[in-house]
Amino acid sequence: MPGAARLLPFLAVTLGLGMFSLMDAAMKSAAILGGVYTALVLRSLLGALLAAPVWLARRKAWPTRDALRVHLVRSAVVTAMAPLFFWGLVRIPMAEAIAISFIAPLIALYFASLLLGEVIRPSAIVASLLGVAGVAVIAGARFGDGGLSGEAGLGIAAILVSAVFYALNLVLQRRQALLASPYEIAVLQNLFVGLFLLPAAPWLAQVPGEAAMRDIVLGAAFAVLALLFLAWGYARAEAQALVPIEYTGFLWAALFGWLWFREPVGWATMAGALLIVAGSWIATRNPAARVNPASTSAS
């Protein structure tokens, strides 16, 4: 790939991550206006509808039985993960939520050991300790400032639990990527997540207002655009070269959190994010245990 064209995959991934942060902002707004459940169900079904034409146009064959099984399992994990993440996102600033969620690749190393038999190296333990320290810095600063209210504390806890599910999601993503295209994953995962959530509609669904529905549609559109940018970028550059760009997600979250919700970013949040990113960087530098923290279709 000659000259400036080599930069295009990096630009595509950076824009894709920005689109995912816009999706988070739109979903946070929609969840505040119409509830987490309604926003997530409608965004999932709309996302499947928006991505379906691209998948059908590029499809070479229908999904195999093995692929469908992996789609179902990963969708079940996302069904547990996404409501926790967005419920927490409503209660704490976006930059804090994204910083805490960066611990997921570290947890994924242990899932990879448990499920795939990979060896946990000493560097992974050091990386995990840095990640835990980063979360402690963010939560400790809130506690020290008196900002760790019951709602904020529950929000941090929800983000941490969602990170555990996201870590499992990352491990499953490695197998899924071998069986299906990004477009197939986008359609079927969104569809299955929406279907898994639908049975709770009689108890949790609300009729969204015009503003909430606007944000839900925006969230679905941003999610599909993010997937397309990321799929294009990762098809044209090595994952290990793109991993550092994943952490620009924190900068995007800080920007859109401030623009959309006027959320300030404190020094403790930045320091905690640096510790977590340092831990993830140490972990991803180990070729035998590299886990890509990309969120191409996690939520």
Automatic annotation (TrEMBL):
Keywords: Membrane, Transmembrane, Transmembrane helix. Residues 19-138, 154-283 form the EamA domain. It is found in: Membrane. This is S-adenosylmethionine uptake transporter. InterPro entries: EamA_dom, EmrE-like. Belongs to the drug/metabolite transporter (DMT) superfamily. 10 TMS drug/metabolite exporter (DME) (TC 2.A.7.3) family. Signal peptide: none annotated. GO terms for cellular component: membrane. The keyword Isomerase does not apply. Its main location: membrane. The chain crosses the membrane at residues 40-58, 70-92, 98-117, 124-141, 153-172, 184-204, 216-235, 242-261, 267-284. It is a multi-pass membrane protein. It comes from Novosphingobium marinum. The keyword Hydrolase does not apply.
